[in-house]
Amino acid sequence: MAGTRDSGGAVGAVGRRTVIAAAGGAGLAAAVLTACGGSDGSGAQGGAGSAGTDAGTVIASTADIPEGGGAVVGGLVVTQPRAGEFKAFSAKCTHAGCAVKDVVDGVIRCPCHGSAFDASDGTVKTGPATAPLPATAIAVKDGSIVLA
Ligand code: FES
């Protein structure tokens, strides 16, 4: 990137400004969605806020949440631990604030340091996290999972 080109310096400067300006909006969105990396994890909460916190807000379709698995939607991880039973928790890992990622075989996993949480109640199955993922009240209406 730090090239040795000596022509077009002014154009390069304008180009950089343009890139920075263009990346501003997208970069902010990426920062909110990519909670992992911030030690305080405040980005994860921002993601939850941007997804809406009002009762009735649709957060996912039941068809998108596999039985025994789940999906991270904004700042929430939505799971289906048993057929037809849906749960939602904060996707912000209670260890250091990364966003949890995978939900497989009833376990929510954090990619940062390996913590694992029970997909049915958010409790810690494997550390280093010691606190459960906070639950979020949801309801199922007409095939959609909504905030309760
Ligand atoms: S932040 Fe999730 S295990 Fe460390």
UniProtKB/TrEMBL annotation:
Ubl conjugation is among the record's keywords: no
PROSITE patterns in the cross-refs: RIESKE, TAT
Gene3D superfamilies for this protein: Rieske [2Fe-2S] iron-sulphur domain (2.102.10.10)
Keywords for the protein's UniProt record, in alphabetical order: 2Fe-2S, Disulfide bond, Iron, Iron-sulfur, Metal-binding
Span of the signal peptide: none
Membrane-spanning parts: none
Required cofactor(s): [2Fe-2S] cluster
Protein name: Cytochrome bc1 complex Rieske iron-sulfur subunit
Alphabetized Pfam families for the sequence: Rieske
Source organism superkingdom: Bacteria
Biological role: Iron-sulfur subunit of the cytochrome bc1 complex, an essential component of the respiratory electron transport chain required for ATP synthesis. The bc1 complex catalyzes the oxidation of menaquinol and the reduction of cytochrome c in the respiratory chain. The bc1 complex operates through a Q-cycle mechanism that couples electron transfer to generation of the proton gradient that drives ATP synthesis.
